[in-house]
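User: Sequence in, structure out. Go.
Assistant: Echoing your sequence, followed by the structure tokens.
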Amino acid sequence: MIKIRIPHSEVQTMLSGRVYSYPKYVTQIMNLANQNAQGTRARVVGQMSELIQEFEGTSLSEWEEWYLENYPDAIDNATEKVYRMVSLLKDAIQKIDKDTVRDWVEELVIVKTFSGLRFQEAILKKIAEHLNKPYRLALPIEESKGIDGFIGNTAISIKPITYKIKMGLNESIDIPIVFYDKKKSHIAIEFDNQNFL
């Protein structure tokens, strides 16, 4: 059995006859700039998956002619958006020194790891602030009973929102449950206020 791999760059070269060559790291910077600038979004260059279906030709040169006829400013508009962002990134790169890199690594490894894994305390603290009550994390012996912490004197369990679907299965929790949903930018929490009166 023969297995052959064709890199995307080779497919492009085979179909177009064009060879694009960039210095090391440049495409990564341009990809990042494009993500931030959104220069090749459908609203700028058109919805490519649909346009290629509309196109009735067969060659790259026909596609190029058809596309530029229908979207004459798209390549220039996308280039401007991405280039503006590349310029901003160039400026930002000049501001990065070793201390900045160390701060970033420290935040990622120490702070974000800790807060990502120990966010239950943040949930307890936020609810306690909302209810104007003290809080504390559960002791190991309390954790073994399914208690994650206390708001005032009320023991609570903290579960992901997906746990609601599983409720009624084997596990039975007879203390108030606070549900959380980790989003990209925040943690959404929900709980019954009546449990803490």
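User: And one key feature?
Assistant: The two ends are 71 Å apart (CA to CA).
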